[in-house]
Amino acid sequence: MSAARTDAERVELANTALYEAMERGDTAAMDRLWLDDPDTEVSCVHPGWPVLRGRSEVLRSYALIMASTDYIQFFLTDVEIAVVGDTALVTCTENILSGAPSETEGELGPLVGQLVVATNVFRRAGDGWKVWSHHGSPVLAGREDEEEDDAAEPGA
Question: Which residue from 10, 12, 9, 17 is spatially nearest to 33, judged by alpha carbons?
């Protein structure tokens, strides 16, 4: 018999479920994952989008993205989780692989990679940890320590 999961482990499972729902295009799962509290407004910023506020607007955005995406897969790295009381903060890098539009109907277009840094805020609800806010920002430049490593390599 396994030990009870910690809050951080439960938050990590909820965070993973968010990305798995996107990969599957599962709008019902997405609906279950987001906080549904009339006293707390949810928010979302997809890369390059304005702030979306309100549960219906956020869920509609995910439905539109999932309906227009033939293939998407997330590889999460640099995942950090902090839990304070009934609130949890997850930061991570979304290494995204997606299918670009195809010129031929019914076929997957070329695969495209993208890096996005994300902050996901969760609130503890009666039925588990729920997404309160998501903010994704595209990575447009390398980190300073990577640039220094590249400069130190011969021929760089």
Answer: 17
Please give the torsion angle defined by the CA atoms of residues 27, 32, 37 and 42, in that order, rounded to the nearest 10 degrees: -50
Q: Which two tokens stand for residue 9?
A: 């482990």
pLDDT in tens, 49-106: 999 999 999 999 999 999 988 899 999 999 999 999 999 999 999 999 998 666 777 6
Nearest to 118, CA basis, from 52, 57, 54, 45: 45
For residues 60 and 34, the answer to whether their CB atoms sit within 8 Å is no
- Residue 96 identity: I
**What phi and psi values does residue 124 have, to the nearest 5 degrees?**
-75, 130
Domains of the chain, earliest start first? 7-152 (3.10.450.50)
C-alpha to C-alpha distance for 106 and 11, rounded to whole angstroms: 37
Residue type, 55: R
10 Å CB burial of residue 71 (0-12, 13-18, 19+) is middle
Query: Residue for token digits 């009870």?
Result: 4
Nearest CA among 21, 45, 43, 46 for reference residue 32: 21
